[in-house]
Fold each of these.
Amino acid sequence: MPGHRRSAPWRIADLFAHEREATAYDGVVDTCLAASSITRRLGKRPQATAENVRANLLVEANVRRALEPCRENQRRFREALDAYETLRMRAAYLHDPTAPTTVLFLLLLLGLAGSLVLAAWPVVAVAALLATLTGAAIRRHPVWRMHLRHNVRELALTAVLWVREQRADRWERRWRRDLEVHGVGPLMDRIVEALLGEDRDSLLLPDSYEGLRSPRNRQYVIVSDASRRLSRKVAQLEGGTIAVSGPRGAGKSTLLETCAEEADFAVFVQAPATYSPYEFLLSLYIRVCERYLTENGHAVPEFGRLSAFRKAARYVAPAARRVSRYLAFALPAGALVVLGLAAAVRSVGLRYDDAVTGRAQDFWHALTGPAEAIWRGERAGAALVVTLTGVLLWRLRRRRPLDALMGPVRLLTVACGLLLVVASPASLFLDPDVRHHAHTLLTEPNMALPLLLALLALLSLYLPDDLGWHPGGVTLVGNRGRRAIAGTLVVVTLALLYGVSPVHAMLTDSGNPLRVACVLLGVLLVKAGGWSAPQPEPPLVRECRNQLYRLQTVQTSSSALTAGPPQLLAAHTTSLSTVPPNMPELVSDFRELLGSIAQERFARKGRVVIAIDEVDRLGSDTQALAFLSEIKAILGVPHVHYLISVAEDVGASFVRRGLPHRGVTDSSLDDIVHVQPCTLTESRAILERRAPGLSEPYSLLAHALSAGIPRDLMRYGLRIMEIEDKTRFFELTDISRQMILEELAETLAGFRTLLGKQQWNPETSAVLLSFRSLMSHLQHLCPCPSADLQRALHHVAFYDLEGQLGAASAQVPDPSRLLVDEASTYVLFSLTLLDIFGSPDFARRMASAAETSPDGNPDLLAQARQELEVSPYSARSLIRAIRAAWGLAVLRPGDATAMIPRPRSIPCALHSAGA
C-alpha cells in the first residue's frame, strides 16, 4: 500500500469514496507540477505560483472537470479498492497467531514435495512417514487442529489478499496515467495560462533552443520554396549549370549541400578567396577521383614522405600480424584435427584404394587419349574446337557469362557439402550398436532427470541476449555471466553422463571419427561453394588511381648503359621525368573522366552533381564573373549538373542577359534560382524547428532585426536566449529593449568609425558630437523607460543637418551626408522597433495596427530592414508609414529636440547587475 504524503482533500467527500483516491489525485497534481512544461512557466509572474495552481486544482468545480474524462478508470479502481478493503477487514478479523505445529507440518509437506521432484526415494519415504505421524497427532489434538485450520485459512486468505492488492495497484496506476494525460494535465495547463494573464505570449518560455546553438546541424533544416524550385530545375535538366543567387546568409550553401546529398555522385567544393583557375581545377580533379574511389569501395592512394623500406614495412607489418595470428591458431588446430582423424581417414583410404586408383586411371586415360591424338595431328576438327574454346575462355575473363557458368558448379558444391553435414550425423540412427545403447539409456529409470538437465543446459546456451537476472534494477547476472554459467552446467552434465556406460559406449563408437571427418569435409565444401574469383578492377577505378598518381606526384625514371672493354668503360645515363599537365590538357582529361563517370551513373538512372560554393566570397562581381569565365571550360559536361552559388549582382547580370549587351553569365549558366529572404511564415517555421515553444512576438522581433536572412535569424534567436540567461528577464518589453539597444550601440560604433574617416572641420563636427552623445546614452543599458534616451534617439533619428549646422551644412561632402542619412535612418528603424516591442500589450496593438492599415503588417518591419541596404531614403519613407499604422509619433527633420540631454553617468540601481 502506498503511503500518504500529505492529508488528502477530504472536503470533496462526494467525489472520492476512499482516502486512497484523494491521495492518488494529490499525487497526480504533484507529478504534473513537476513537469518541465509547467515549472518553466511558474514564477515568471507574481500570481503564477505552484501554491496558486494547487489551490485552483483543489476547488470542487475544477476537481470535477479533472475527473470527468477519467470516470471509467476511477470506477474500476474504486471497485478493486472496495474488494481489497473488504477482504482486508475479513483477514484482520480472522487473524490467528501461527502455531508451531502448523509450521512443522508445512515444513514436512515442503520437504516431501522437494524429495519427489529430486526423485530421492529414501528421503521421500522418510518425509512421508513423518508427515503422516504429524498429521495423525494434530488430528487427535482438538486445539492443534483448530490452530492448523485457522492458520491454513489465513494463509490462503493472505494469498488472495495479495492478488487483490496487486489488482488495486494496477488500476490505480491506470487511473493516475489517465488523470495525468486527460484530466489534471490539460486542466493545469489552462489554469497556468489564466494565471499568467492575457499577454502571456510576451513571456520568453521556449521548450529548448538546441537548434539555435548548432546552426549547421542538418536535422533542423526545413524544406523551403527555394529548395523545391532548385529540385525541380535539376530534375528537368539532364545536365547543365545552375546558379543559386541570393544575399549572404540566405541559405545558398544549405541548398547546395541538400541537392548534393540527394545525388548519386556528388562533389562539394568551395571557391578559394584568392583563386587560381589552374589550382582550383587541379583540386576539383583530385576530389572527383578520390570520391569515385571511395564510393566504389577502393582505397585512396597515400602519398607520404617515407623511405621505400618504411613504406613497405607499413604495408607488410599489418599483413604479417594477421598471418601470424592466423597461423598461431591454424597450426595447432590443424595438427590436432589431423591427429584425431588420421586413423579413420587412413582406414577408409586402405579400404577403397584399389577401386579409386582404377577409376582415376581410367579417367586420366579418357582425358589424355584425345589430347595426345590432337597433339599428333590426328584430329584436325577437335584441334580447331579446342583452339576456339581457348580463345573464348580468354575473352570471358572480364565478362559476366563466366559467373553464369560457375553458378551450377557452386550450387553442386554447396549441395554436396550440406549432404555430408546432414548425412553423417544421420548415420547414427542406422548403426545397430548405437541404437542399442540409446535404447538402454532411455529405458534406465534413474537417467530421466540427468537427461532433462542436460537438455535444459543445452537450451540455455541459445536463450535471447536480453535475458538476465536484474533484481531491483541491479544487474547481478548479465549476458556473459549467464552464458558462462550455462556453459559450465553443460560441461559438468556431459562429464557426469560420460561416466554412464551407454553414453560412454555411444561416444567411443569406432565410426565416430569418420563421421566427424565427413562433417568437416562438408563444411569445407560449403565454404568453397561461396568462393568466387576476384573481379578485375573497373576501368574507371584504375583511371582515377592513375590520375591521382599523375596529379599528386612527380615520377622520375633513369637508366644507365656501360659498354667497352674492361679497361675502357663508357657510361651513358638517361633520365626521364613527368611534366605536370598544362591547363588545356587538364581541362580535356577532366571533362573526359567526369563524362565517363556521368555516363555510368546516367545509365543507372543516377545523377552527378558538382557543387561550387562561396563564389560570392571572391569580392566584387567583376572577380566573380572573371572566375566563371576561367572555369567555363569545364562546364557543360553531358549529364553533369553544376551548382554554383553566386552573389545577387551576378544573378542580376544573368537576369539582364542581352540588355544592353551579353555577358559571361549568358554562356556559362543555363538557369538560376534566386534565394529570397524568408517571409514571416518561413521565419516562424525555422524558429519553431530550432526553438520549440518560442512565442510569436519573439519570432517577429528576430525576423525584423534579421530582415528574414536565415543566418541572422538564428543569430538573433540565440541572442534572445543569451540576454535571458544574462539578465534573467522574461518579459518582452525588457528583453526587446535590451536587445535593440545593444544592437543599436554596436551598429552606431561602426558608423562612427566610417564617419571618422571623412573630412570634417570645426563648423561641421557637431554631427560627430550628436552621435557621440547618443552612444554615451547607450553606455549603461537598462530596460527601464528613459525620457532622456527617448529624446536622444528622436534627435538622431530625425536629424536635421541644415537646422543643426546652418550655412555650414553646405561644407559636408556628399559621401559624409549619405553616411549621416544612413545612420539616422537606422536609428529611426531601431526607435520604431523599440516603440513597438518595448511597450506593453503587444498582441492588442499588433492586431489594431493590422486592422488600421496594410502598413501595419508585421512582415513590413523586416522589409524595412531590407530596404536599409538599398537606400536610406526609401527605407525612411517605409518606416514612416509603419509608424503611422502603429500609432507612433511621426516627426519630420527639425521637429526633434535641438540638443541631446546629458546622459547618466552611473548604471541603473535596479538593473545594474543585468546591464
Amino acid sequence: MKNIFFLLLVSSIQPVLSQTKLEKAITNLENNYEQEKVYLLTDKSQYAAGDQIWFKSFVFDGYNRSALSTTLFVELYNSDKKLIDWKMIVLANGEGSGDFKLKEDLPEQVYFVRAYTPYMTNFNEDFQIVKTIPIYNPGSAETLEISKSSDWSAKAFPEGGTFINGVPTKFAVRLSSNTSLPDNFSGKIVDTKNPNVSITTFTSFDKNVASFKITPASGKKYQAIIQDNAGRKQTIDLPEAADSGINLEVYSSKEGIKYSLKGINLKQQLQNYKIVGTINNHLAYRANINQLTNEASSLIPPKVSNGANGILQLAIFDEQDNLVAQRLCFIRPNNLKIEKAEIVAQSLKPTPRSFNSIDLSPESYFKNYTVVVSEDYGTNNSEEENILSSLWLTGDLTTRIDTPAQYFSKNANSEALDALLISENWKRFDWNSVLSGAFPPIKTNSLNFLSYKVKPIKDNAMLRDTNVTLALRLGKQEPIINLFKTDQNGYVYLDNLNFDDPLSVSLFVNAEKGKESNTNNLFVSAEPLVNPTQFKGNFPATKYKLVKTAENKKPSTAISRALNTQKNIKKMENADVQIEEVKLVGKKQDPKEELNKQLSTGMFNSMNTTIFDFVNEDQHASGSSNILDWLQGRAAGLTFQRNNSGVNVPYIRGSQAKLYLDEVPTDPSMITSIPVNNIAMVKIIKESGLIGNAVAIYTMRGDMKSKTSGKETQSNNSAILKGYDKPSEFPIEMIDDTSPAKIENDTRETLYWNTNLFDSDYVPPRIKFFNNDTAKQYKVLIISFDEDDNLLYDTEILK
C-alpha cells in the first residue's frame, strides 16, 4: 500500500479564509473544551469508624496538572447520598490535601468521596471522581461482604466500529457487572446456522476483556458463546456485517501509531477522506487522502504527543465530513514515561518503635514529593487504581474497569489495553454533536481562589454607587483598611482571596457633615461566589453487599488494628490532659478557678476538664464568627464536623459531644447565634460520670466584661468569611517509649503521610518515621512532578 497522505501536525496548520464543518468543530473543541479530571489518593483503602481519612488530590487538565482551578470540593457521602462532611481545598499547581475525621458511631457500609472543581460542573457529572471507600464498624447491625453474584453481561465490539463482508476484523469482547467479574473467561465464535462448529476461539486477557479476529461471509450471522471459570455461559450476537464501508486497523508501538484504511464498495473510493487524531480535545494529527484509492496507511510519530503517553482518538470522516469510523489507541504502551525516585540512603530497622529514614537525592529535578509509608503485610495485593490509571485511562472514560492499574504495571499486557480501548469510545465529547454545532454552555467560569459578594447596608437601605470603607482582618492579624465603591446594585466584590483563617469584614461609612459616625445603623453581609453543587447522579455499583451481622463475629485483622490505634490515640490525648492537670496541683486559687466556681454547678465539675476564661484572659476570639469555630484545634481530643447546614458540630474522641448553654442542653445552631463577646467561659468536659463528653458555654452575668470586648467587639457592621479548610497535621511520631500512656501494642498501618516533602537548598528531602510493633518491611509510595509536569511515580517494598 502506498502512503498518499498530506500530513498536517498541529504546529503547521495554517488559518484559512473559510472553514469546513469539520474545521469549525476542531476550532471550537480547542477553544472551548478545556476539561479537568481529579485523582484522589488516600492513605488506606478501607477504614474503621472513628479513623481519620487522609487524602491528597491531583487535578489535571489533560495530562498536565491543571492551572484552570484553584479550588476543589471534596465531599463524603453515605450510601443513601446523605452528605456526611465536606471540605473546600486550595489547589497549588493542581495539588491540594485534606482529611476527614470519621465519627465512631458511623454504621458499617460503603461510603463515597466525591471530588470536583467548580469548573468541572460545566460538563457531564460522570467525569467527577466518586471514590468508593468501605468503612467498618464491629458494632453495626449489618456487615459488609464481597458479593459473589454471578450476574455479568458481555458485548462484542468491532475495531473502528465497522464490520464488513470479506474483510478480516478484530473484535474485543468486554464483560461488565454491577458487582464482581469472574476471574477469567473464554469463548468461541459460531455461525448461527451451524452452532456446533467453532470458527475461532478466544481466552480472556484479564477480568475485563478478550479479543479475536474473524472474516465475515456474505449472508451469514455470527454469535459469540462465552463461558466463565465457574461454568456460567452467555451467548451474544455479533453485529450484522455490511456490504460496504471502511475498515480501520491500528497498531501501536514505540515507533508510533500505524493505521491502515481499506474502503469496500465506495463510490469515490477513499478520495477526500480525512483522518483526525485528537488528544484531550486538542488536534494532534490530521491527514487528507488526495487520490483515488481503496487502501492507504501511515505512521503517526510519537512527536504528536511530545513523546508522552496517553489516549489518541482517531476519527475517520468521509468527503462530506460524516464520521465513518473511530478508534481509541494508547500512545507507546510499552514505553511509559515515568521517572523513579532516586534513593541515596536509607536506615530501616525492623525493631518495634525504631526510628527510620529514607533520603532522596537533593540533586533531582523533582522538588516536591507526596510520600506514603505503610506496613507491608506481604500479601502481594495489587493496586486497583493509582495515579497512572486515573491520569491515562479512567479519568476520561466513564465505564467501570476492573483493576485499571494493571494496565500500567510492570507486567502489563499491551494487547489487553488495546482490546479494552477497542471496546471504549471517547466520552468527553461526541463527534456528531460537535459537527452539528452543539456545545454545552460554560455557566461556571474558573475563578482564581475564592470570591465574595459583600452587601453594605445603612439605615436599612442599600448603598448604591457609594464610597465605603471595609476593614479586613485575617485571624489575629492587624486589620487592613480598604476604600471601595459599591456598584449600581449596591455590592462590593472581594476577589482572588486565598486564606484559611476566619476573615472579618467590617463596614464603615463616612459620617454626614455635622453628624457623628455611628456603626449601630450599619449592617454588612457576604455571599460566597465559589460554592459546592448538589450531586444529582447515582453512585457507582460496588462489589460489596450488606448482610446481618452474625453473633460473635470478629472484625478483620486490619480493622482490629485500626480500632486499637484509635484507643492508643485516646490514651495519648488523655495523658496530655492529665499532665496539664498535674501542673495545676498545689497552685494558689486563680481568677479562672473563681470564675468556674461562680458559673458552674457540681454536675459540671470534673477532673478531666479544659477551661477557657474570657473574663480574665484575652482569648483573641473576636476574629471568629462564633465560639464553635474558635474552639477548633484548641483542646486535645476535640474535633469538629460540619453538618448539612454548614454549622460546626463538636466531637470528643470521635463521639458527638453534648452542648450546654448556661448548663441547659442546646444545639449548635443556637450556640452560633451568640456573639463571641457575650461569652464568659467555655468548658470542655471529657468522660464525666454524670454528663459524659460535653462542651459547656457560659454567658456573661452582672457586671462581667470580656477581656476582648474592650478592644475588639463584633457588631452588626461585621461579617465573618470562611476560607479554605486547613489540613490537619499527620502525627509522625505516634509512640514514645517515655510516654506516660504506656502503649502496649502499636498497630498503626500508615506510618508516614506527607503531601509536601520539600527539597530545599539547605535540607535534602528525608522521609522520617517511627516503626510500629510488627512491621518488618515497608511499602513506600512516592509521587512528584517537575516544572515540565513530567511524572515521578514509584512504589517500592523496602526492608
Amino acid sequence: MNHSFPTSLRPSVRAVRHGLLAMLLVSGAPLVALPAVALAASEAQQGFNVPAGSLSAALAAFAEQAGVSVAMPPALAAGKQSPGLSGNWSVLEGLQRLMRGTGLEAVPGGEGVYLVRPLPEAGAGVELGATSIIGNRQDVSGPLRGYVAERSAAGTKTDTPLIRTAQSVSVVTRDQMDDQGVTSVAQALRYAGGTFAEYRGSSHRVDEVFSRGFGYTPTYLDGLSFGGESRSQVDPWMLERVELIHGPASVLYGQASPGGLLAMTSKRPSQDARNALQLGVGSDSLRRGAFDLNGQLDEAGTLLYRLNGVLSKGQAEVDHVDEERHALAPALTWQPDEDTRLTLLGYYQHDPEAGYRNFWPTEGVANSGRFGRLSRHFDVGDPDFYKSEREQSSLGYQFEHRFNDLLTFRQNLRYLQEDADYRQMVFMTMTADGRYLRRAPSASREELKQWVVDNQLQFDFQTGPLAHTLLAGVDYKRTRLDTDTARDLNWFDNYLLDSQNPVYHVPVGPLTTIDDNSQRAEQLGAYLQDQIEWGGWNLMIGGRQDRSEVETDNHLADTRVTVKDDKFTGRVGLLYAFENGISPYASYSTSFEPELSSGAPGSSPFKPTTGKQTEVGVKYQPLGTEALFTLAWFDLTQRNVVAWDSNLGYNVQNGEVHARGLEFEARGNLGENLELVGSFTYLKPEVTESAQAGVEGMQPARQPNHLASLWGTYQLAALGVPGLSVGAGARYVGSSYGDARNTYKVASVTLFDAMLGYELKFLAPELDGASVQLNASNLTDKVYAASCAGSDSCFYGASRTLTANLNYAW
C-alpha cells in the first residue's frame, strides 16, 4: 500500500516535469538520476490481482492497486492486450509482466509516476504524441468526482479499497450532496442503504440516524468522536464526504452503537479543490450564503489553506420558530516534504435559532383523528417561552509522518466546547376528548467540553507471500457534561392548548430544578488490526481493550456515582476478490457501550450494553467502470438494553433486541452523462427479552421493515442541450409500529425529490464557472408522519421544500 502524500507542486510545474520525462522517453535517453526513494518504492513487493484484457484497462487496474500513476502516450496501448497479473511483485516487476509481448517497458519517473515507453528495438519510427496519466488514485479525504468512492479509511482507519473491505460502508460524496442540495447530514443519508435518516421529520436541530434498527448512531468527525448523543452538529457545506459504517465498529472506535457509526470528513486544503461561492433562497423565507476558498501561502506550496463559511436564516416549518446559523471552518496544511504533513482544523458554529425539538400527538398526526389532521405548521409550544440557542467551537490537528516504506505514524487530536440554552413548552399528552394538548414548561442548559486524541502506528510489510497492513493504536477521550433542567411541576392542566383554536402567550409559573448533574467520562482504548492480502484473499482481524470510567455528581441529592467498565471487542472478516470484480465476504464483530442513564432511586448502576453481528455479503465493481454494488445480509443482537417503563416511572434494564436484514446499495458514474445511487433494505427487528410487560416478542417502535430509494442525475449535453442537468429521486419508507407494544402503525410513504441545474457559460462565455440550481424535496407535498416513539410521541414529516442557488466556482 502506498502512503505518499498528494504532491505540493503547482499543476503547471507538474505538467512541465511530466512533459520533460516524456521527451526523455521518446528520445530513448536513459534516466540515471532517479531519487533513491522512488527506486526503493519500485522494489518493494505487494500483492496484485489484475485480470487479463486490454492493456489500458490492465494498467489502470494495476495503478489503482499499487497506488501509483502510470503515464503513457495513448497510441502505445492501441490494440494491445495484457496477460494480467496475480501474486506478489514489486511495482516495476509487475508492470513489466503486465506488458509482456507488447514491445513496451516501464521506468520510474519520480513522485509515484511510472512512465511507459517502447523497448529500444521496438520503438523505431513510432509517433508517440501526447502523454496522458491513466492511473490516478483517489484520496480518501480529498475531493473526488461523481458519486462513487472506490476507497475509504472509515471502516479500517487505513486507506483501503472498498472492494477489499469485508464490511458494508456507505460513502456519500460532495458531488452527491451538492446535486441533492442537502442542508443537514441526516439529509445526506436519505439514499444510503440500511439507514432511516430523518425519523424526526422536519426537526433539524440534531442529526439523529437509525442504522440497522438501532438509533442514536454515534458521530465522528475526521476520525474522532464529535460531541455527545443528540447534541453537536456540523453543517454539511463543511464536509468532503459523509460515511456510514454499517454494524459494530467498537474494535477501532471504542464505545459505539451496534447499528453503525457515522463518519464525517472535513474539507481540507487541496490542490484539487476549487474555490466556490453560493447564494441561495428557499421555502420558509430561507436566505443562505456560503463560500469555500483555498490556495497556497508560499511559492513552494508547502503551506496550503482552506476557509469555508455559511450564513443562513429562515423560518422553521413550525409556526413561530426561526432557524439561523453562522459557521466558519478554517484549515491550514503544512507539508515540508512528501513524508510529513500537519493539518490544523478549526470549526465555529453559532446557531442563535437552533430550531425546534418537540413531539406531536398520535391523534391527528399518525391518523386523521376526531378533529382531522393537525397542520404541519401547528406549534404545540408557546412563542413567548420558546428559546433554542447553541454555540460550539473546536480546534484540532491531524499529523502524519512516514518514516519509510514500512512505518507511518499518525496522531489526531481535537478539543470541542459546546454551550446550549433551550426552553420549550413540551407536549405531554392529549385530553380524553382528543381536542386539548397538555404541555409542560421545561428549560435546560448544557455545557460540553471534550478532549479526544488518537495515536496510530501503521506497519506495511511482507511475510513470505502475505502482504500485511498492521495498525496499532491508542486513543483517549475525556468528556465533561454539565446539565441542569427545570420544569413547572404543576403542569398537568395548567397549560392546555386548544388544537382547534390555539391561544398562545400563556404566562408560565415558577420552574423547579429537577436535574442538576455534572458528568465526567473517560475512555482509554488500545487496538490492534492486521489486514492480510494473499492474491485475491483478504483477511481482516482486530481486537481492542477499552477501559472507561463515568463519574456523575448529582448536585440536588449531593451524591456521586462512579461506574467503571472494562471490555474487549473484536472483529474478523474474510474476503476474496475475484478477477472479474466480484468480492464475496463474511465477517463477525462485537461492540460495547456504557449505559449512562439511571434506574430506580438507590439502585445499582446499569451494565454496559453489548452487541454482536454476523454479516455475509458480496461486492461487485465491474471492470473498467466507475460503479460499486454491495449486497449484505446481517444478524445483529444487542444485550442489556435499557427502556423507560411508564408504569414504574424510571428506566429498567433487562432487555435484548435482535435485528436481521438484507441491504443492497448501488452507485455508478455511467459514462460522462449519468450518475445513479440506489438502495433497498429489508429489516426485521424484534425485542427478544424485556422487563416490560407486553413488549417481549414485539418490534421496536420507529423501525420500518422496508426502505428503498433511487436517485439519478443526467447531463443533457448528449441530447444537444449542453450545460443543462436534471436530477430526480424517489424514497420509500415502509410502515412502522408507533409504540413498544405495537398497538398501532405509522403508514408507509413514498417521497419524490428533483433537481434542475444549468451552467451559465453556455449563455455567455464570460459567465464561465457560474451556474444556477433548483432543488425540490417532497415534490408532491405529501402529508405524513415520519415516525412515532410511543403514545403521543409522534413526529411530522417535512413538507415540500424548494431552494434556488446561484453558484460560482473557479
Amino acid sequence: MRRPRPAAGLSLAVIVAAGVMSGWGTGRATADPGPGGTLYVHGASRACSDSGTGTESRPFCTVQAAADVVEPGDTVRILGDSLSPYTEAVTLTRSGTGDAPITFSGAPLPASRFKAVLAAPASAPALTLKGVHDVRVESLTFSDEHGSDVVAVTGSDHVTLDGSTVENAAPTTPVTGTAIGVDGTSSDVTVSRNTLYPSTAYGVRVAPGAARVTVTTNMILTQQQGGIAVSGATDTDVTSNTLFAPCATAISLDGGSSGVVENNVATTLDSPMQTRICQAPTAPLYTVSADSTGRITADYNVAAHEGASATPARTPYSWAGTPYATSAEFRDATGQGTHDIDGINGYPTTPTEHSPLIDSADATAPGELGTDLNGLPRVDDLLVDNTGTGTGHSDRGALERQDTLTIAAGDVPTPPKGLAPLGISLKTDATSSWGAALTYSADFGDGSTPATGTPGTPVTHTYATPGRYTTRLTFTEPDGTHAEKSYVGVTAGTAAPPAAALSVAPDTADGQTAAGYARFTVPAPADAWEVASRTLSFGDGTQENLADGAEQTTHQYPAPGTYTATLTQTDLLGRTTTATTTFRAADAFIPVTPRYDTEKTIAAHGVLKLSAATLGADSNGVDAAQLQLVTSNAKASGALTLYPHGTTRPGTAGITFEPGRTATAETTVKVTPTGAVDVYNGSSGAVTVDVATVGLQSHAQYADTYHPATPARLLDTRTGTGGVHAPVAGGHSVTLAVGGTHGVPAGATAVVLDVTATTTKASGSLTVSTHGTSGSSVSGPFWTTGQTASAQVVIPLKDGKIVLRNGSKAAANLVADLAGWYGTTANGSEFLPVTPVRVLKAARIAAHATLKLKVTGAHGVPATGVTAADLNLTVSAPAGNGYLVAHPDGTARPGVYSLSFTKGHTAADRALTKVGADGEIDLYNAGSVPVNVSADLLGGYLVFPAS
C-alpha cells in the first residue's frame, strides 16, 4: 500500500428576470392543513416508496401515488426542486368536503428553500383535476417545455389554484397549450396569485359552460394567443390581474360570457416575440364581443404601453367589435370604464410612488383579495389620495405598493462585545417613506421581555450571562406594515478566553505507517461559541484554517525532521490562546527485491552519479536508499564514499577494497535533495562497482517499521545451531527459518542478518536468497582460502525462511546472526536519515577490549527515543585476524559476528545495531591484536511513534 500526499426599454427577457428577482409568483400558502393527516412525496429520497403510506421518513416517490390514496382533510406535501422534477401526468379523482378539503402543496419545508417542480409531459397536462370538489392546489412550480396544457380542471367544482408558477422561456414557434384551463363542466373555481410565464398560447382559459370562475391577482406574461380568455362562461370575474401582452389580447370575453372585469393592468411591450411569433400585433388589450357586452361590467382597468410616446402602440379596447383608442372614447361610447386609466408608460409591476395605480382600485370588486400576488397586504399609501371605491386601499393590478421603512445604519448595539455582565445601548432610529407613525420592539435574544417604545429614544440592556446573542429590532406602523433588522453577534464574553488543545499522531493503515504524514486532533473547546477563528500552523511554513467544533486534519510533511505545530485560537473579543505539539517526521521501510542493474567502472578519484530512477528512489517521499555494493577489478586499495548528489563529499567509507579481491557491503545513503547519489572512488586506481537497491525509506508512503533485536545466533553449522551440524558443501545450500523464531514474527517482511563464512577450504562467496521466490537474493561475504568473512544483509521474507548458498568449490561453515527485522508498526521504529558523518576515527581498541560509542544527541540523531543506529564500521589494516561485536551498551555481550577482519586487509561493512538505554553502542574487539576502528553514522531509528 502506497500513499501519495494525501427600467425603461427593457427586453422581455429582462422583464421576466426582474419578475423572478422581485418575487413574482412566489406565492404564499394561506390555508392551514385540514383536520386530516399529511402525506409526503419526495421522489429524490432514497427511502421513497409508492407502496408505503407516505410518511415523512418513507415518502411516496410519485405525486400520483399520493393522489390515489388522499382522503378529505389530508394535505399532500410535495418536496423537491428543479434538479429532480416530477415528470408525471397526475390525475386527481378524489375529493374533499367543505369542512375538510384536500390540499396539494409544493411549499417547501422550513429547512428547504425550494418548491417542488412538476414537469408537464408532452402527452397530457402535468395536473388534471377530474370530477373533484373541495380541492386546493398551492405553491407548486410547473415546468413546461412543450407548450402544451399544464393544469386542467375538468368536471370539477369548489377548486382553488393559488400561488403556483408555470415557468419556461417564451417559445420560438407557435404553440397551442393553456397554462391553466377550466372546462365547461366546471364551476366555482378560483385561479389566484399565480405567475404564468410565456410557455403556452393562453395563460388562463375558461371554456363555454363554466360558471362562477374567479381569476384574480395573477401575473401573466406574454402569451401568444391570449392572457385570460373567457368564452361562454357565466358569472366569471376577472379582477386585479397584471398582464404583459406583446402579441394577443390581454383579457377577452366572448360567447355570451357574463361577469366583472375590474382593477386589471395590461400593457403592450416592444418585445423580441413581435419579430418571432407575432410580427405585427394589432389585437386590443381588452376585448368583449357583442354577445357578451350586455352581461359584462368593466371598470378600474389600466391600459399601458412600453414606448416613450403617449400614443399607445395598439388599440386598448374592442367593445362589441368597435375599437376605442382611449379610455375616454370607450367611456363616452359604452358607459363602461368610468374609472379606467390609459396613456401610462412603463411596466405593470409594483407601482412606483405617486403612480395613479395606487389606492385607486375598486376594493369591492368580486374576487378582490386582501393580499397581493406576494401575500402582502393591501395598504393605504399616505402620499396618495384615495380615489378608489370601498373601504380598502387596493392598488390596481396584482402587486401592491408597500411603505418603505428605513432603519438607520447606525442603529447597532454599542458596544458590540465585552465581558459579561455587558451593558449595551441600541439606537431606535427609523423612518417611514409615507410618514407613518412607528413603534419599535427590541428583542435582545436572551429570553428577556422585548423592550418597546417610540423610535428616536435609545434603549439599554444588560447581558448578565456570557454568550453570543442576536438582537432583533422591529418597527411597525398602524396598518401592520413592519420592517426588522437583526444584529448577529453581540458577545458577552467569559472572564478567560477558551483554552486551546492540540495533539498529533502519525497516520497508520493496515499495520503500516506513513511516517511523515501527521494526523492532528483538535478537540472542541469549552465555550466554543466564543471562538472566532482557529489556525493550525504546521511548523513547515504552511497552515490551515480550522472549522468550529472538534476537528481532525492531516498534513504531509516535506521531509524528515522535528516540527512544532501551533494552534492559534482567537475568540470574539480578540483574545488568543495557543497550543503546541511536536511531530517528528521520519521514514518507513519499503523492502525492494534486489536487482544488480548498475555495474560501472569508476576511475581513480572519479565520481559515479546514480540517478533516483536508477536506484528506484523516484517514488513518493523517498529520503534514503539501502544499497548493496560489490566491488571487483580494483587496481589499487581504497574505499568508496556515497553521499547525496549536490552536497559536500564527507570523509566516510561505504565499502573498502583492494586488488585481487571481491568485496561486498551494504550501506544506507540519503537521496535528497535531488534524489541522486554520488559514488566517489577514493583509490589511486580504477574499480568496478555493482549496485543493488535492497530497500527504500519514505516519509510519504505506507510502509514498515524496524524492530531492532538483541543480537542472537540463528545458525552455526559448527555447533548445530539452526539444525545443521556440518559444513555446507561447495555449491550447496541450507534453508534457515527466521520468521517465528527469536522474536521475529511469521509476518515479518524483511530481516537484517550478519552472515559469516568460516573454516573455508577454498575461495568463494555466500549468496542469501528469499525462500519461496526466485530472483530475490543478495551477495554475502566473499572470501579467500582460510579466511573468515562476514557481511550484514537485508533480505525480503515471503514465508519466513531464507536460503544461504555456499558459492565456493569447497565446504565452509556458515553462521547467521539476527540484527533485527521489518514489519508492522507495533513496537517498531522509524528511520531518520542523516548526512553521512564520521563519528569515530581510527580509535584503537585493544585485544579483547570494549569501546563505548555515543551515537545519540548529535549529527541529527535525537538524544532520546533512539532504538538503533545505522553505522558503517571499518577496521584498518589489522595486525591479526579477528572480528568485532557491536551490541547495545548495558547488555551482555552476545556471541555474534558484526565485522570480521583478516591480517593486513582493511575490512568495512554496515552495522545496523541496537542502541543501549544510554544512547551508546559497545564495540568489542574479539581479536588477539589491537585494531584501529572507524565508524560512520548514516541515520538513527526512533521508537514509533516518535515524539
